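User: Sequence recovery, please. Input:
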């Protein structure tokens, strides 16, 4: 095997709702290398319980390099675990890190003894050049878009331009066991799919403007339809979860893709499309009907907060009134809007969290299809809101592994921007908020353990009481769920 690519588990624990995501961050840079004839092994810790044995067997073939990807959060610890195995057995194999976290903090990442080289930003062009340099022994300084260690110093070779998505080959799904990544929604199997990168909006909490510089790039409608058709033909999968940051930046392109799906009679289900509330307000009846005909079943809509002050602070460029209007606009259509809220944003008060909860209740009451999620704010380095969190007391982690505590289900000890009373409220309501609304979180997941479903139904009235009264006193159930790792250990 020439190249080993490792996808660390995003979390650990029992995990009531275990979702295994397609490793797009590895498949994308693997595609051009596959076309060039390199032999590649993708090892996914979350999908394969025998990953250690598979990794050691593959490393025995002395590959050119070992590549790993990681987001900010618990995935970092699992990435380091894999790197440790490599360095202990085969110290001469170069360890290359990529992904969002390493791209945001390449120098700090390289201070850890395991990573040797960082691919900063997109890897489709950088990684193949780096592999060739390692294979031939040519200077790494000739490869743009990387950070590496040399003579005890960290060297950066400069920013590489963004890739042309239309110029990339189809993803090499043959490197993975596709059946491991099928997710059953609305009665059919789904996988993740990406057709564009970047976002033109300026949300101050988001890492996207830092990574993609508010530059939006996309596959042409023809390329998107070709890729969808290939997946249907080769794997019989007709369900897709679009991971685009905002599918509707170019409305003409979005319309051409949806019309192409209908015209080609692909008969697919699109159970994830990310869209803004203000964008929804601008859609007319004909466009919404087109989406229904094209198989759109569910939207992800970032609401973030029910407080207009907080929305203005995070530069959401959207009003609470537009959120309410967008929800009402979807009522006549068989589309599920999933409203995404955050809590623990810098300067947010308990009253503003209560405003978010009241808005979530209003949205789910007015639209019987609507659901919501509440996540804890994670500060990403380089973002505007991160700088504000620093001003308010965020203790910036000094080691790569310390970033594992930062994630959407955990309040790390470094989060001094959240006042003690607010910390207690968020920690105590994190679990009960999963039950907010007419139903509760277990309803859509048919594979959830029946015992857990039964316990959840018993707990439902307690959760409703806690949310209604903002009661976070003695959160025994939350501590128990965290201790058991029922939603994945995040700290």
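Assistant: Recovered sequence (491 residues):
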């Amino acid at each position: 095997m020439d190249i080993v690519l490792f996808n660390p588990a995003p979390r650990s624990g029992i995990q009531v709702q275990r979702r295994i995501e397609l490793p797009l961050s590895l498949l994308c840079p693997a595609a051009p290398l596959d076309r060039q004839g390199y032999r590649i092994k993708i090892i996914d810790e979350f999908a394969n319980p025998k990953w250690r044995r598979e990794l050691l067997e593959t490393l025995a073939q002395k590959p050119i390099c070992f590549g790993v990807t990681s987001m900010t959060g618990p995935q970092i610890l699992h990435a380091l675990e894999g790197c440790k195995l490599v360095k202990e057995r085969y110290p001469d194999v170069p360890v290359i890190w990529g992904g969002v976290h390493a791209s945001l903090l390449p120098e700090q990442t390289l201070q850890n003894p395991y990573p040797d080289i960082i691919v900063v930003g997109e890897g489709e062009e950088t990684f193949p050049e780096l592999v060739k340099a390692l294979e031939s022994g040519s200077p790494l300084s000739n490869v743009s878009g990387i950070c590496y260690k040399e003579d005890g110093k960290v060297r950066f070779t400069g920013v590489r331009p963004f890739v042309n998505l239309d110029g990339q080959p189809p993803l090499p799904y043959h490197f993975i066991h596709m059946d491991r990544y099928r997710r059953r929604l609305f009665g059919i199997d789904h996988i993740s799919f990406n057709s564009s990168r970047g976002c033109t909006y300026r949300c101050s909490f988001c890492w996207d403007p830092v990574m993609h510089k508010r530059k939006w790039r996309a596959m042409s409608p023809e390329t998107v339809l070709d890729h969808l058709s290939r997946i249907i033909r080769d794997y019989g999968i007709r369900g897709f979860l679009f991971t685009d940051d905002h599918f509707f930046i170019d409305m003409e392109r979005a319309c051409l893709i949806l019309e192409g799906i209908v015209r080609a009679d692909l008969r697919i289900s699109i159970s994830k499309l990310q869209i803004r509330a203000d964008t929804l307000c601008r859609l007319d009846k004909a466009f919404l009907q087109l989406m229904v005909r094209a198989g759109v079943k569910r939207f992800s809509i970032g609401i973030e907060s029910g407080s207009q002050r907080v929305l203005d602070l995070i530069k959401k460029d959207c009003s609470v009134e537009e959120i309410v209007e967008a929800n009402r606009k979807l009522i006549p259509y068989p589309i599920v809007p999933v409203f995404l809220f955050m809590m623990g944003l810098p300067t947010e008060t308990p009253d503003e969290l209560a405003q978010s909860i009241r808005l979530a209740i209003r949205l789910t009451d007015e639209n019987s299809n609507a659901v919501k999620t509440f996540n804890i704010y994670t500060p990403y380095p380089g973002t505007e809101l991160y700088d504000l969190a620093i001003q308010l007391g965020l203790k910036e982690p000094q080691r790569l592994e310390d970033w594992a505590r930062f994630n959407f289900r955990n309040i790390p000890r470094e989060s001094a921007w959240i006042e003690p009373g607010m910390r207690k409220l968020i920690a105590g309501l994190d679990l009960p908020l999963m039950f907010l609304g007419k139903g509760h979180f277990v309803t859509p997941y048919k594979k959830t353990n029946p015992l857990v479903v039964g316990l959840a139904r018993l707990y439902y009235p307690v959760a409703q009481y806690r949310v209604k009264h903002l009661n976070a006193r003695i959160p025994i159930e939350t501590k128990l769920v965290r201790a058991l790792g029922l939603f994945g250990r995040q700290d």
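The two ends are 35 Å apart (CA to CA).
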